[in-house]
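Record pair follows.
FIRST:
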Amino acid sequence: MASNPIFSASFLSRNVLSVILGGGAGTRLYPLTKERSKPAVPLGGKYRLVDVPISNCINSGMQRIYVMTQFLSASLHRHISQSYKFDHFSRGFVEILAAEQTPTSTSWYEGTADAVRKNLIHLTSQPFEYLIILSGDQLYRMNYLEMLAHHIEKGADLTVATIPVEKESVPGFGIMQMNDSNEITRFEEKPQDPSLQEELKLPKDWYPKLDIHSDKELWLASMGIYVFNRQTILELLDNAHTDFGKHIIPGAIKTHKLSSYVFQGYWEDVGTIKAFFDANLDLTSMLPKFNFFDMDSPVFTRPRFLPASKVNGGVIENTLLSDGCIVHKARLKECMLGIRSIVGADTDMQRVVMMGADYYESLQSIAKHQEEGEPSVGIGPRTRVVNAIIDKNARIGSDCVISPDGKPNEMDSELFHVRDGIIVIPKNTVIPNGTVI
């Protein structure tokens, strides 16, 4: 990821401020958000969702970063404080802005725009000319300098990052129209009407100009990534509107100059269980769509100083093992094993995202749980797990079967949940020996 030469480090430290929005309850990712905020959900075996936008900022030279949250933020606070420490002589920081009561507001964040509005007192205390607003639940790699350069070149008040999407995705996104100067002329939030969708379609004769190599019908969808001029954000939030997509952007088209920055790389909204599951499993493929091995723009996270993973035999195919795992003669196919994952002998796992554990269990703890008839942390021997997400610190016994076969696409139980046909075992759940799910 090459830096844009027009932006010096001093320019960025004085003029650019980044905000990552992670304040929502994360209901679409439940039960992974039952005990943690959405940005703190583990990703790719050893990372957290919030590491992606923070790393994009750092790789773009933007080191003044606020993360806004309000639900179950303790683990997110801990992760950020232990992961991101800048030089004492730089202006860099990554700080949490949690929802708080003030003399003028006693309510929680009521939307994306409302979250930024309630924190303007903190944001405006910093020097900046450009405010970059990012989402905390997306997997992508972007050089924000290129978007900022586009914003400045077009003389825009507000720039919206957009990505071409196919027809089936249109009802789930804010869809935009722009003119041949990339100026946004129309914005429709999640259009459902087929005739309206047809009106918003991207003209095919624009494809060469936008470097789009496709013969399919495409629409421009908002990525939830914005660049605001300082004065613009103050003007557009001087009201009671709560959401950028539903209220602020459609209204701003009439009063300000909005530009579309068309992004062509891989981008995935991992805000649902299915999208999260698919994105993690794609990382186990031969050529994943997102490359964590790109050292030109690495994804940063907390250094844990764990030992190398240990495999005591077995058959392992298209599987990622994170730090500190122990696998005993198991069969793993298309699996993502998080830090400190322990898998027993003769266990069969296919298409499983296992988040691992926060600790290694002591011999005394193992013996104590055995006396009480409970399994150890991890997955016991001779167990079969298919199409599942296993959250941290789960204790799954021996001779168990965990599969969504024969179950409805959506259901809830004491020991598990099913979302989009995927079994989810919540954090700290105990599955007794011999259990069939």
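SECOND:
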Amino acid sequence: MAKQVKLMAQRRTVTGRSAVRKLKARGVVPAIIYGAKDKPETLQVSKRDINAMLSHASGENILVELEIEGDGGKNRLALVQEVQHSPVGGDVLHIDFHAVSMDEEIQADVPLEVVGTANGVKNFGGLLEQNLRSLAIECLPRDLPDILTVDVSALEIGDSIHVRDIALPTGVTTKIQPELTAFSVLAPTVEEEPVVAEVEAAAGPEVIREKKEEPEAAAAAGAKDKAAPKEKEQKK
């Protein structure tokens, strides 16, 4: 199941680019929490705490117990919805929290992880094709899985695993079409010899023949040969 972590946060009263730059200079990351029945609130959290939380996460779905300063010890449960990273350096720029309730179902995309090596790949040179990288599921927060493992070791060439074949943990359901293919083993591809090369080899080497004279050129040459004896007689 998804690991639940505690995180300290403070309400953020300043907005705008210049204010955000000042927060970053102090090692603080701007954040927002929305969802449930409460209005969205702007927050700020320690960059060090955020990095520690992300580095210890075992999956993409992280449940956070937010302790917001000034709430009198009343914590709020939230799901990390989105983390924005800097394209240069990868620093965390902003984080979105989606407030959830322990007794209300949530929706999440859970990664599918392959277990084992398909027999059709291992012994017959097939290719494992993964059509689904994650599965959209619904469950209570306490039942949220980090990942869904799928054992593909029994797959032969031509076999498939569909959504209906994926074993879901207790309390977890999906509305994805059950006949949708998640994994399949394809037959190995065989490269065919180029047909043009075979035809040229069968025909043998090309024979270059002498160019035939054009009809007009041949007639002119014959007339010249006939006129040659007459010229010799006149000279005599």
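COMMENT: Residues 107-186 form a domain with the RNA Polymerase Alpha Subunit; Chain A, domain 2 fold (CATH 2.170.120.20).
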